[in-house]
Amino acid sequence: MKTYIPERKEYSSYLDLPKRQYFGDTKKYPKPDGLRNTCGWFEVREMPGLGVYAVAEPYHEQNGCFYVVLGDEKALVFDTGLGIYDPRPLVEELAGGRELILVNSHFHFDHTGGNHFFGLTAHIHADELVRHVASNGLHTEVISEQVRDEAFPMGVPEGFDQGAYGTEAFVFEDVAEGQIFDLGGRQLEVIFAPGHSPDGIVLIDEANDLVLAGDTFYLGALYGQFASEEFGYSDMEAYRVTMHRLAARVNDETKVLCCHNEFMADGAKIKQAAELFDQILDGRVSGGEREDGGLSYGEEGEVLQVFGDGFSVMYV
Fold first, then answer.
1. For helices 236-247 and 267-281, what crossing angle results, to 10°?
2. What is the Cα–Cα distance from 229 to 130, expressed in whole angstroms?
3. pLDDT at 1
4. pLDDT at 250 over 80
5. Taking a C-beta distance cutoff of 8 angstroms, is the pair 31, 44 a contact?
6. Position 7 pLDDT exceeds 70
C-alpha cells in the first residue's frame, strides 16, 4: 500500500492553510442570480451539476458554510450556520418550495446557531451533552469569545448584539447509523463520525459520489483537541477510526463538501488524512507547537500540530 508522506514545508501556521476565495471562485462555483434573502451576510455558491448550494458566512473568522441539497420532492439543509442572521428565508428561496429536512453534522455553535429559526425538528446524533445544549441553548463566556470584535474582519454586523450571542434551544430527534434521508430521487446515508466531537456525522450520497463532511474533514486545521462543555470532548483514536471508515467508502475523485474554508476537497484527501492520523497515533510523526496561540477550548496541555498537504491535525 502506498504510504502518505505529509507535506510540512509549505505551511508554518494553520493560518497559512487554504481559505475560501469567496468572491474569486465564480467560474468554479457560480453565484446564483437574483437572490432576495441573503441579508448582505450570506454568500451563496452553486456546486455545479450536483443539485447542491453552499451558503457561506464570509464575514466571520470561522470561514464556515452550510449546504442545501435538492431532491425531486424535498431539500435537506445540512447545518444552519452561526445564527447571526435568520437563514430560513434564503434556504426556502433556494429550496424552491420543496419540503425541508434539517440535519446537523454536530452540535457546535457555528453549525446549529440558526436551527431555532426554522421551527423544524433537527436530526442530530444526540448524546447527553447534545441533548442538554439542544434543550437549553448555550450562552457562556466561551461562546461570546467567538463573536468578539476581532472575529469580524469586515466589522461587526449591523444590529448584532455581541453580548447576547449564544445558541438557542431547538427541537431535535436522534439519528441512527445507516439512516437514509430520502429526498425523492436522491438518498443520503448517515455515517457516525466521532473524533472532532463525539456526536459527529457525515452524509453520503452514493449515487452522486458525494460526501457531506461537516467538520470531520476540510482543507484547514482539523481540531482534535476539544475538552469542554461548550465543544465536547475530542477523541483522536475515534477520529482515526472515522477517517479509515470514510476512506473505505470513497475513491480518489469523490466530491467531499466541507463546512469550512474551500467548499470542496476530493476523496484522496480523506485517505491522506487517515494515514496522517495513523502516523501521529503510532508515533511515526510528532507535532510542533501551534504558533498562533488561538482560543482555548478547554484542552489541558500544549496543543500540537502536524501538517498534511493542505490540511493539518491539532491535538494534545
1. 150
2. 10
3. 46
4. yes
5. yes
6. no
Map the chain to HEC letters.
Answer: CCCCCCCCCCCCCHHHCCCCCCCCCCCCCCCCCCCCCCCCCCEEEEECCCCEEEEEECCCCCCEEEEEEECCCEEEEECCCCCCCCCHHHHHHHHCCCEEEEECCCCCHHHHCCHHHCCCCEEECCCHHHHHHHHHCECCHHHHHHHCHHHCCCCCCCCCCHHHCCECCCCEEECCCCCEEECCCCEEEEEECCCCCCCCEEEEEHHHCEEECCCCCCCCEEECCCEECCCEECCHHHHHHHHHHHHCCCCCCCEEECCECCCEEEHHHHHHHHHHHHHHHCCCCCCEECCCCCCCCCCCCCCEEEECCCCEEEEC
pLDDT tens, residue by residue, 43-72: 999 999 999 999 999 999 999 999 999 999
The confidence band for 22, taking pLDDT boundaries of 50, 70 and 90, is low
Look up the CATH architecture of domain 18-315. 4-Layer Sandwich (3.60)
Domain residues of the chain, as ranges?
18-315
For the cut 80, the answer to whether the pLDDT of residue 276 exceeds it is yes
The answer to whether residue 314 scores a pLDDT higher than 60 is: yes
Answer whether 54's CB lies under 8 Å from 45's CB: yes
- The mean pLDDT value for 148-171 works out to 93
